[in-house]
Amino acid sequence: MELIDVFAICGSVRAGSLNRALMLAAQELAGDPFQVEVWDGNAEVPRVDATRGRPFPAVVAALRDRVAAADVLLLVTPELNRSIPGNLKDIVDWLGILAPPRPLAGKPVVLMSASPNRFGGAFAQLQLGDLLRRSGAEVLSDLDVAVGYALRHIDDRGVLVGEDPRREIAELWQRVLTQIHADRQVVPA
Ligand SMILES: Cc1cc2nc3c(=O)[nH]c(=O)nc-3n(C[C@H](O)[C@H](O)[C@H](O)COP(=O)(O)O)c2cc1C
């Protein structure tokens, strides 16, 4: 089966991040034909400055190219004050700037979140979906993986051990696989 290249970004730069643990579980559970590459460059990304017509900072240009090349973008977001963290907002804004290669235009995106609280980062995830759609992305998930009370599901080693979230992740990847296959069978006019 043809590989599906997934590029994964987590919006937390915190040591011991619950969302990073979730991202690693998503990588582990994806299985064939997905190949999930985890990105760790958040700390290098400068604040967005609406650059247009000027060269992007090198790290941003590389990120835009990599996202443009990916079949699927996986974004895993913490929730801070019912919103997404600033570093992730910067990344999404950089990716959304209207210059070639338009990394988010038509890009299939999968969203996940985790929080120690009840709603599992659902508010942040909904906001992130709105932001991405503004840049033309195709959001494939609908709060399918929003891990509430995450400290019950992620152990001290940072491993997602909770059976329910693990099943939800596996089921989401199956739906994504079906969607990607359907998209690939559509012959452009
Ligand atoms: C300033 C601040 C605001 C927060 N606001 C929320 C919130 O609105 N909703 C929520 O579920 N958790 C909230 N939290 C808790 C975070 O979800 C929690 O710290 C989580 O572990 C952060 O993600 P990480 O572990 O991946 O870094 C907040 C935490 C901080 C520090």
What does this structure look like?
- The protein contains five helices and six strands, in the order βαβαβαβαββα.
- With 189 residues, the protein is α/β, with parallel strands linked by helices.
- It has a single domain, classed as 3-Layer(aba) Sandwich (Rossmann fold), CATH 3.40.50.360.
- The longest helix has 23 residues, at 163-185.
- The mean pLDDT is 95.
- The site of flavin mononucleotide has 15 residues, from α1.
What labels would you give this structure?
single chain, 189 residues, alpha/beta, Rossmann fold, 6-stranded parallel sheet, 6 strands, 16% strand, binds flavin mononucleotide, FMN_Rdtase-like_dom, Flavoprotein-like_sf, NAD(P)H-dep_reductase
Outline the secondary-structure elements.
Blueprint: E1 4-10, H1 18-30, E2 34-39, H2 58-69, E3 72-77, H3 86-96, E4 108-114, H4 122-134, E5 138-139, E6 146-147, H5 163-185
Parallel strand pairs: 1-2, 1-3, 3-4, 4-5, 4-6
Helix pairs in contact: 1-5
Bound molecules: flavin mononucleotide.
The site of flavin mononucleotide has 15 residues, from helix 1.
Protein name: NAD(P)H-dependent oxidoreductase
Organism: Actinomadura alba
Pfam family, one: FMN_red
